[in-house]
Amino acid sequence: IRRDDLRNIAIIAHVDHGKTTLVDAMLRQSGQFRASQLQGEQILDSNALERERGITILAKNIAIQYGGTKINVIDTPGHADFGGEVERTLGLADGALLLVDAFEGPMPQTKFVLRKAFERKLKPIVVINKIDRPDARPDEVLNEIFDTFIELGANEEQADFPYIFASGKAGFASHDPQAREGTIQPLLDLILRHVPGPEVNPDGPFKLLVTSLDFSEYVGRIAIGRIHSGSVKRGTKLAIVKAGGVIANGAADQVLVFDKLGRVEVESASAGEIVAIVGVPAIDIGDTVTVPDDPTPLPRIEVDEPTLSMNFRVNDGPLVGEGQFLTTRHLKERLDRELISNVALRVEPSDERDAFRVSGRGLLHLSVLIETMRREGYELTVGKPEVILKRIDGVLHEPYEYLVVDVPQGQMGPVMELVGARRGEMVKMDVKGAYAHLEFTIPARGLLGLRTRLLSATQGEAILHHNFHGYQPMKGEIPRRVNGVMVSMVRGQAVAYALDHLQQRGTMFVSPGDEVYEGMIIAENARSEDLLVNPCKEKKLTNIRAAGSDKNILLKPPRQLTLEIALEYIESDELVEVTPSKIRLRKRHLT
Ligand code: GDP
């Protein structure tokens, strides 16, 4: 049967297109907030790193009560895929809300998630947001969205999407693009009308598939997922079916559901609802939580394996700043904490003294962690990134990734060339619309350094995602031109030097500030064609290129991107020191 008192909707939006503001308006107007509670406070606020990167790293969920219906708003990771999270998140929803800025239009970065939503047969509702902007062009943007849908393979029904215009800031939604006031209610009504309530079996045995995890110091691991069948009450005895059918015990010490501020404890919850369960310490993503007398598991979902390892070690010498020493134990504790919710991460002892071998899904995944730790004040030295090899039947195997690249049609050439040179094999090509969509299999080794190269070769336009594909026998070396770069950054000033720049071509790190581009040269002989771009802002790059025809331009690189680039260039035993005040790659000569 279908529940009508509940809706589960995933929200898909490019960073800055106004998701937080809009969700706030929905909450406020559905009568859940006293005005005082809201003052300057945003519920879904993104962290600084996400904003700089243009990707959503942490997903945050809330629920809205509207009339007699509860709407669970599920935040999707906007861009990066660190182990299948996009798929898992979409799996919780019965519908999707695509939020698009009325001036900027649909952004290529949201295509990956949107494509996955189409594959899951979700039918998005389109919200053209910020129509109060003086430069808003709602009708054109609507057409662009339609084109994007067609390009992404929307079926007839999906292409006939419901849409509405809105201003989260002014707090209204309307079917009239010229509207300047009103309430958010038309949007809530549209959601109720177009998103089906969950189809459930309320009477079956309680079953839930764990799609994400949370952690609290007091209660340990918390399982999050959508109830597939039956219901769960506080105190219910539970069985946890793990990989290979292994069963662990637990109990529903607490059952929590989403609410306006995050989560709230309830007495019980039933099929269709998304819950967090406390009392299941041995839980992992993909496990089924069920009842002991019927422990049949739901189809398991797998988290992508880590494919890349690096050594992490605390720096020698006194810290900059506090004069406090960081110990190996601090590092271990910090990494252990990370492991609880960062599901595609692995930490092991290293051969190197006082170091840990940290494995993740790729350079982006690891550098987000390193940069987050750096911002917390950790002073680290990290080693060369290495692909994780396995010996299977005596033969050395290496990890392969399934690589998806979206790029303007005119830039397809360099993409195919670069990926091909790294043993990428094209599996699929789709060139509807202005963008080409390319899919490859590629050894994980080939991904090292590929992102920056692709961005550089496509003026920052290429958008990459990759998923684990499997292990295959190793097939010799991947030709890789190694170039060196020396990066040194001073907090606040964000000065970077790429001293040993790429041997024949200079490389510049480019990043816009919030609205203004500023900075200075970082490489000798740099040419404007060689700009390295912050992928989240590629649209604005034209301005820079026009301004900086030669060296001595720009820059205020986001430290995280700079770090990622620095990591790509580490060879042999060279190390990167990552401190709150600087990132430095120690290497002078390069081959
Ligand atoms: P998010 O990154 O998608 O969560 O976006 P935010 O809600 O944080 O908004 C990003 C920026 O857009 C902020 O500076 C907001 O003030 C601005 N903004 C959000 N909604 C609107 C809107 O409806 N109209 C206008 N003009 N600006 C908006």
How would you portray this structure in words?
Belongs to the TRAFAC class translation factor GTPase superfamily. Classic translation factor GTPase family. BipA subfamily. It is a single chain. With about 600 residues, this protein is of the alpha+beta class. About 25% of the residues lie in helices and about 30% in strands. It contains 15 helices and 31 strands. The strands form six sheets. The protein has an eight-stranded antiparallel beta sheet with strand order 12-11-17-8-9-16-13-14. Mean pLDDT is about 75; it is low at about 35-45, about 50-60, about 315-320, about 480-560 and about 585-590. Guanosine-5'-diphosphate binds near residues 19, 21 and 46.
Summary of the model, kept short:
The protein is α+β, with helices and mostly antiparallel strands.
Helix content: 10-25%
Sketch the major β-sheet.
8 strands, antiparallel
Low-confidence segments? 33-47, 49-59, 317-321, 480-558, 586-591
Give the overall shape, derived from the CA principal axes. globular
The chain-level mean pLDDT equals 76
Strand order of the largest sheet: 12-11-17-8-9-16-13-14
Identify every distinct bound molecule in the structure, by name, code or SMILES.
guanosine-5'-diphosphate
Q: Structural class of the secondary elements?
A: alpha+beta
